[in-house]
Structures are given as structure tokens and as C-alpha cells.
Write a structure and sequence with these properties.
Elements lengths: L3 H11 L3 E4 L1 H14 L3 E6 L6 H9 L3 E4 L2 H8 L7 H11 E3 L6 H8 L4 E4 L2 H10 L4 E5 L7 E3 L12 H10 L4 E5 L4 E3 L3 H19 L7 E3 L15 H15 L5 E4 L3 H4 L3 E13 L2 E6 L9 H4 L7 E2 L5 E7 L8 E9 L6 E4 L20 E4 L1
Parallel strand pairs: 1-18, 2-3, 2-11, 3-4, 4-5, 5-6, 6-8, 8-10, 10-11, 13-15
Antiparallel strand pairs: 1-12, 7-9, 12-13, 12-17, 14-17, 15-16
Helix pairs in contact: 9-10
The chain binds pyridoxal-5'-phosphate (PLP).
Length: 377
């Protein structure tokens, strides 16, 4: 947690709303991931927060990257574009995965020159890849249970496990190389058994592939889902890692490379937002505060990410239950109807922690209000 005096100082210096990115915390989260999951290579999921400075810090800390669009790929590529040709190509092979199973044809055409790993989960995609990006490596994304995740992903992506062999056969028949399997158990998962179920499903398919002689299948991508510490009920990463490590050890021989795509875990706790009270009213017996950031901006995760970010005050004093609204003219711009806050005046500062993932990344210019300013610690 950044101390309140520093939050106030930064707000005074830079104005509000202010997104404060703590780069030491980013490095610490990456290290923690490596410590608890030593066999798993972390590919930071850029979509969680694509700020170039975050990518640079993680690049310098030796992270790999999961990108899900051409602009995200190019953001990462910016860091390696001046490397000698072979080193640059090795970085793409070893440290980037394009993990969006659906890719537009112009994207495939552009990606082909870089020969990255890409995920896919359907027959139509095989035809597109064969025609427009025959030089990429392929990873089949499986549909796995997402029970108990804050954000469910399995209704949109993933091949049914019973369809997997047919998709791998079709890719090989098309002259493409399938290098592995991937899955995603749903974001901010609370049910670590999802990983165990998914790892068992993947192990069965690996066995079947090896039995068929598909010797290039040597990579397993266990996706994201690793929980960020939004509140005291969230279990720590080490508990999640216990389940994953035990199953990996039991099911996957050493020659299978294991990677993951953590987004939220790496970036959520590295960002704090500071905003300021710009309006105050009592409505239907409830104190209402209007602040200069809301759900169309840094609090966009309230809508898109199904996330709750407690709003806290810098000032201390007896509290009451209040509503907190964003600055736009839309009633949807409601951050919370039940925050405990002291009596605040116009200009008083409020802040929310754990704001790094799926928040600033989906901020808009709605109603003429620009996204919050970003500063770096
Ligand atoms: C394919 C893929 N990988 C990784 C992630 C990152 O997941 P998380 O933020 O839960 O770690 C996502 C999130 O939506 C995703 O779709």
C-alpha cells in the first residue's frame, strides 16, 4: 500500500484523477509468481494493462508476454525491435504467445512474418491460418470448467475436449504444426480445483497425441486466473500454486514446457487511483459523493470486470454509508451505493487500491472526460 501522505503529495503535484503505477510492486508480483510456480514461465497478459511503461518494466525483469491483438504484439515488439535479427526472432519464439483464438485475416497476414505461437480452437481458423499465416506455431485452446471465476471465459472460447484430436489432426493435415495446448480457468478464480480438472483434461489429450506420434507437442499453457488480493477473503497465490504444482508434477514429464498467462495477478495490486470529491448531496436519506473518476474511466472494471473497488478517504473521521458516483451525466456511472466514508468536503481526496487490471485499460473519453493521468513510482 502506498502511504496516504505520498498519495496526497502526488495528487497535489499532478492533479486528479491520478493513476499511480508502482513498478517495484510489478517486479515483486512477477517474482512472487516465479517463486510459487517455479516450473511455469509467466507470459504477462498485456490486455490487463497495456501501458508501455508496464511492458518495459516487465520486459527488463525477464517476463514473457501474452498478446491478443496486433497492436499489443507491436507494443511488446517495440522493446525488441533493435535486437540482432536472430535474438529478436528467438525472443518471439520463446517469449511471446498470441493468445486470441480468433484472428482477422489482415492480422494473420501481418503476424506471419514474425512466426509467433498463436492459439486457435476451431476448424475455420485452421483454414485461415493455412492460407494467411502458414509460418506460425499453433496451440490448441481447450474449453475447461470456469466454475467460481469472477469473469467466465469458457462460453466464448475453447474447443470441447472431445473435439480436440480432430482439430489437431486437421491442423497437421493442413501442413501446420501444433506445438501444444492451452486453457483458461476464468479470471480471478476462487476455485483452484478448476486448474486440477483442466490439467487432467490436457494430460489425456497429450497422451493421445504422443500415442499418435505428434512429437512436436511439447508445450502446455495454463492461462490466467491467478487471483489478485482484492480483499482478505482471496486466497494467496501459494494456495493456488500448491494445487497446480502437484498436478503438473504428477501429469507432465519434464520435457513438456509449462507456461501461464497471468494478467490480473501481476498488475492489479501495482496501481492505486486517487480522485477528488467534486459534488456532494443528500438524496433519500443517503449521503452521495460525486468524484472525478467513474465507471466510464478508471472504475470501468466495475462494469466490464464485475469487480468492486472499495473507495477510501485520505481524511479520517467517523464514517457513514454513502453512495459514490462518477462525474458523467449517466446514472450508470455509479461506483458504489455502499461505501463507508467520513464526512467529506469538495476537494477532499479519495483513493482505491488494486486498480491495475482491466480498469485504466478500458477507460473511455465518454461525455468529454478523458482517462486519468498516469504517474510512475
Ligand atoms: C487468453 C487469456 N489469457 C490470459 C488472460 C489473463 O487472465 P488473468 O487476468 O485472469 O490472469 C486472459 C484474460 O481475459 C485471457 O483471455
Amino acid at each position: 500500500m502506498i502511504d496516504k501522505a505520498l498519495l496526497s503529495k502526488l495528487a497535489q503535484e499532478h492533479g486528479t484523477p491520478l493513476v499511480i503505477i508502482d513498478h517495484a510492486k510489478l517486479r515483486q508480483n512477477l517474482e512472487e509468481f516465479r517463486q510459487w510456480l517455479p516450473r511455469v514461465q509467466p507470459y504477462y497478459a498485456v490486455k490487463a494493462n497495456s501501458h508501455p511503461a508496464i511492458i518495459k518494466t516487465l520486459y527488463e525483469a525477464g517476463a514473457s508476454f501474452d498478446v491478443a491483438s496486433l497492436p499489443e504484439f507491436l507494443l511488446v515488439h517495440e522493446n525488441i525491435k533493435d535486437l540482432p535479427e536472430q535474438e529478436r526472432q528467438d525472443f518471439i519464439w520463446d517469449k511471446i504467445i498470441y493468445a486470441n483464438p480468433i484472428k482477422a485475416i489482415p492480422t494473420l497476414k501481418e503476424l506471419d512474418q514474425y512466426k509467433p505461437l498463436v492459439t486457435y480452437d476451431n476448424f475455420e481458423e485452421i483454414k485461415k491460418i493455412q492460407k494467411h499465416a502458414p509460418n506460425v506455431g499453433m496451440v490448441l485452446r481447450l474449453k475447461v470448467p470456469n466454475l467460481g471465476a469472477m469473469v467466465e471465459l469458457s462460453s466464448k472460447f475453447g474447443a470441447a475436449p472431445e473435439e480436440a484430436m480432430a482439430l489437431i489432426d486437421a491442423s497437421e493435415a493442413a501442413g501446420l504444426t501444433v506445438e501444444g495446448l492451452s486453457f483458461h480457468v476464468g479470471s480471478q478464480t476462487t476455485n483452484f480445483q478448476n486448474y486440477a480438472v483442466a490439467l487432467n483434461l490436457a494430460a489425456e489429450i497429450f497422451k493421445a497425441c504422443r500415442a499418435k506420434g505428434y512429437s512436436k507437442m511439447n508445450l502446455l499453457d495454463i492461462g490466467g486466473g491467478f487471483p489478485a488480493p482484492y480483499d482478505e477473503n482471496v486466497q494467496p497465490l501459494r494456495e493456488c500454486a500448491k494445487v497446480i504444482n502437484a498436478e503438473i508434477e504428477r501429469l507432465f514429464p519434464e520435457d513438456i514446457q509449462i507456461l501461464a498467462e497471468p494478467g490480473r495477478f501481476i498488475v492489479a495490486s501495482a496501481v492505486t487511483l486517487v480522485a477528488e470529491v467534486i459534488g456532494k448531496a443528500d438524496r433519500d436519506g443517503r449521503r452521495c459523493y460525486y468524484i472525478n473518476d467513474g465507471v466510464y474511466h478508471t472504475y470501468s472494471g466495475v462494469i466490464f470486470d464485475h469487480c468492486h473497488y472499495p473507495v477510501k478517504a485520505i481524511k479520517e473521521g467517523p464514517t457513514q454509508i454513502c453512495a459514490v458516483f462518477g462525474p458523467t451525466c449517466d446514472a450508470l456511472d455509479t461506483i458504489s451505493l455502499t461505501e463507508e466514508l467520513p464526512d467529506l468536503e469538495l476537494g477532499d481526496l479519495v483513493y482505491s487500491e488494486n486498480m491495475g487490471a482491466y480498469s485504466h485499460a478500458s477507460s473511455t473519453f465518454f461525455n468529454g472526460f478523458p482517462p486519468a493521468k498516469v504517474v510512475h513510482l
